[in-house]
Amino acid sequence: MTGMPGLPPPRPIPLRDRAQLVFVERARLDVRDGAFCAVNADGTVTQLPVGGLAGLMLEPGARISHAAVALAARTGTLITWVGEGGVRLYSAGQPGGARSDKLLWQASLALNDAARLRIVRRMYQIRFGEAAPERRSIDQLRGIEGVRVRESYALLARKYGVKWSRRKYDPKDWEAGDTPNRCLSAATACLHGLTEAAVLAAGYAPAIGFLHTGKPLSFVYDIADLWKLQTVVPEAFRIAGEAAKGRLDMAPDRAVRLACRDAFRRSGLLSKIIPQIEIVLAAGDLPKPVPAPDMLGPAFEDEEDGGDDGHRG
């Protein structure tokens, strides 16, 4: 990896030391004089500390140059291309990439029915602060969690004076949803973006989940759910309540993003996600794969890594 002449090459900063997410719309991202920047429609330029961010979420109207993508990859910053409000994921970069040892361990845990159940039970305990009911299958635990989440939504709606019926939104039509559902969608998009950056930084695969399966971000949903009810969901209902009373001076989805940013800072979420991933997977009680004794080493030794395990350095 090369840097600018006379300067050392950039090294990824550990995720725990980074700021949160930045949403970009109707701007062009580029590199000027070695700095990552956003060029607005009126020609003004805003520099972004790309190496200090967990991720960039590009909404409709955003464009990005090859140089900007390359710099984000070198600094270990996730870039995702999303729909309006962040509710639809079109594509994502992979600044770290899964590490083979961690990917094999994650896959072996997911393929072992007993280990997978132990992990799901541990996630339940972390999420709700009590042990999961005994002699329940994963499908049964998923159903129990769904009921508890719906009850939490109803309680928060009453607390903040929000008219609430059920969770319903169309990712293809952002404007079709009511304000509470749009607030929830914006809030969960923030949390999922942050969690995906953490999963990649830790060296794991976003698609290999345990409670959630069959989706490109199944493991992201598993991990994000551990904090959803304590961080972003209350903020979403609070903002929806403020909007219903006419107390907002900005669009509800923007207010939700700012509130989520503040909630992430208060909770210190970035410093907690990666350690919690390791705790969750350790509950599967399977050893990590040991390299084969006759395996070939690399033809060329890599430079010393920076950042987290999954960062390329």
Please tell me what the overall shape is.
Answer: flat
Strand order of the largest sheet: 1-5-7-8
Instruction: State the assembly state of the protein chains.
Output: single chain
Beta-strand portion reads 5-15%
Largest sheet: 4 strands, mixed
- The count of β-strands is 8
Level-1 CATH class name of the largest domain: Mainly Alpha
In the CATH hierarchy, what is the superfamily of the largest domain?
Answer: CRISPR-associated endonuclease Cas1, C-terminal domain
Please identify the structural class as seen in this structure: alpha/beta
Percent helix among the residues?
A: 40-55%
Q: Which fold name fills CATH's third level, the topology of the largest domain?
A: Four Helix Bundle (Hemerythrin (Met), subunit A)
- Rg of Cα set: 21 Å
Chain-wise SSE layout:
Elements: E1 19-24, E2 27-32, E3 35-40, E4 45-47, E5 53-58, E6 63-64, H1 66-74, E7 78-82, E8 89-92, H2 100-111, H3 113-128, H4 138-159, H5 179-202, H6 218-228, H7 232-244, H8 252-267, H9 270-282
Parallel strand pairs: 1-5, 2-6, 5-7
Antiparallel strand pairs: 2-3, 3-4, 7-8
Helix pairs in contact: 3-6, 5-6, 5-7, 5-8, 5-9, 7-8
